[in-house]
Amino acid sequence: MSSRSTGSPFAPTEADALDNQVLYYLEIASFTLYAYDWLLSASDDVEIVSRGGLSWSIAIYFLSRISEFGHMLMTLLFALAPVGNCEVFAVVLATFAVGSIACTSFLFFLRVRAVYLQARYITFIFGGLGLVMVAVQIFNSTTLRPVLHLAEHLNIRK
Known about the structure:
Elements: H1 14-52, H2 56-80, H3 86-115, H4 120-142, H5 150-153
Helix pairs in contact: 1-2, 2-3, 3-4
């Protein structure tokens, strides 16, 4: 049996509120761990760049890190902060998500290619799979639309 904490029929149930609270804790923990991991590896990253210079793969690695950090930050803000006009947030979130997937997929592609000694068949398969992942993320990001909450749509005030 679900009990409602207020008399409003649009108020979340206690179970929904608990689910949302757990989601918020997981978002905060994920973002904190990612930022902490990045801070711990920053000295190694600087050493690698100072020793070998900035190559394309290292630049893609940094873009992957930055875009995933932005993606996680925007997801956290989207979940926790009250956003009046979410269209701009959704565009920025989608941009970071596509950038993160594209860069990370390309890094994986470079690694697989190196492991399999640039074999044509493996290059073709993993290159195609990486492009499919990016295409699916672009499709997912472009079909994301803001939705009015029912209470806001009906002008119900708390």
